[in-house]
Structure formats: C-alpha cells, structure tokens
C-alpha cells in the first residue's frame, strides 16, 4: 500500500484494511490482538460501521501505524488529528533538541548524525566532517539526504571500500522502511539511489563480518572501519520526535579509533 493523495482520500475502513494487509494479518488475527469481534472489524473495514475515535487509535496502535498515518486515519474517519508535529527548534521540543545535542557531543570524536523518517539530515556532530571531505558540493545542497550522500558517485561512495555490501545494507534498510510506512517519498528515493552505480552483494552480507556489518571508509590514505547503531526515542507523542533517528558510528578497531582521536585533537 503506497500512501498517495488518492489513498488518503479513501474511507478509513479501506485504509485500515490496507494496513492490516501490509502487516500480513488476517481479520481474525487482528481481532484477537485488538480484542474486538471479527464481525465488528469486518463492518469497520467495509464501511458498514463507523469506528469511534478511540477504536481508530486502538486499531492503529495494534497495527503499529506511524503517528503521521494515524492522524490521516483519524481525518478519514471524520475526527481531528491526535498527534502534533513541531519543529525540532520549537520551544515545545527544546528538551528533545537538548538531548539530541548532548548525545551528538558526547559521541565525539566518533561521527553521529540525526535524520528524519525520509533520511534527511537534521543535525550532526563535528566528527561527521571526516565522511564529507570528498563529497561534491551539489550532493550537499539542502535538504541533505544521508542516503544520497552515502551512495551518490560524487558522494561518500567513491571512498567506501566495501561499497557493494554497504550499499546492499542501506538499500535493504530503506526497503524495510518503505514496507513499514508506505511513504511515497521513500519510493522515489529508492528509485533514485538504486540507479546509482556501485553494485550489490548477492546476499547483502559480508561473510568476513564476525559481529556486525562494517563500513570500511578510505580517508587520508587509510582504511577506517566502523560499526554503527541506530537509536530512536521511546514512546513518542509528537510526529517529529517519532521520526527522529540517531545513527552513531563507532571504530571497529584500534587503528580507526586512533585516527579519529588524532583528527579531533588536530582540529
């Protein structure tokens, strides 16, 4: 189910059925999970019964529908949105922004970035400059998209030693995100980045990676090896917060750690 303008105009029952099918649940399975009768769920999906506001939110919660799409379900059912969307620099999200900055600063001298649900760069620490030194200016025109930066032939890709494997990892992650959210913007991004050269590993894995898939990056004539983590905020009630992700890179060996420390000390 791709979220288009036509999709958002569809009755709420059809949209709920779409999300159920996306999650590969039968009516019976969802009814049991949501503690409602299959008859009532069937009536909701076919439009024979108008769900209450609480029922829309209840089903959306069980279906793990993103907050942005929950608002759209509510609007389709004739109710006001339940979740706000504030800018990260707004007064209401000041504590969140402060926490993000603390995480970024605390992670130095190792690189870390903050992105939204569309992989657009919202913030980064100074150590990320190591990845951006050879990136062409046109790839960094705002809004900067980190997948484009990573995979564009004029971006990081030219220095990623294990590009086919890392590219496979990023593309598979994007495909999973599309499967979860149905965001049409992500479909467009996938079409774009899959058109870049670089190849893909046949099974998307690196057999030499004993613990986690590494990023091997060439910098100043040296090959630096990183592993990364992806963190999100727990129990968010704001769309912006729900869509934030912090990707932090860690040195996978002592040589990489030493280069990062010396780079920071020299700056």
* Helix amount: 40-55%
CATH architecture of the largest domain: 2-Layer Sandwich
Main pleated sheet: 5 strands, antiparallel
* Strand count: 5
Strands in their spatial order, largest beta sheet: 2-1-5-4-3
Features of the shown structure:
2 domains; Beta-Lactamase; 13 helices; alpha+beta; 434 Repressor (Amino-terminal Domain); single chain
Annotate the secondary structure layout.
Layout: H1 5-9, H2 12-22, H3 27-34, H4 38-46, H5 53-62, H6 67-76, H7 94-107, E1 112-115, E2 121-124, H8 129-132, H9 146-151, H10 163-181, H11 184-194, E3 215-219, E4 222-231, H12 239-242, E5 245-251, H13 254-266
Antiparallel strand pairs: 1-2, 1-5, 3-4, 4-5
Organism: Virgisporangium aurantiacum
GO molecular function, one term: DNA binding
Protein name: Transcriptional regulator
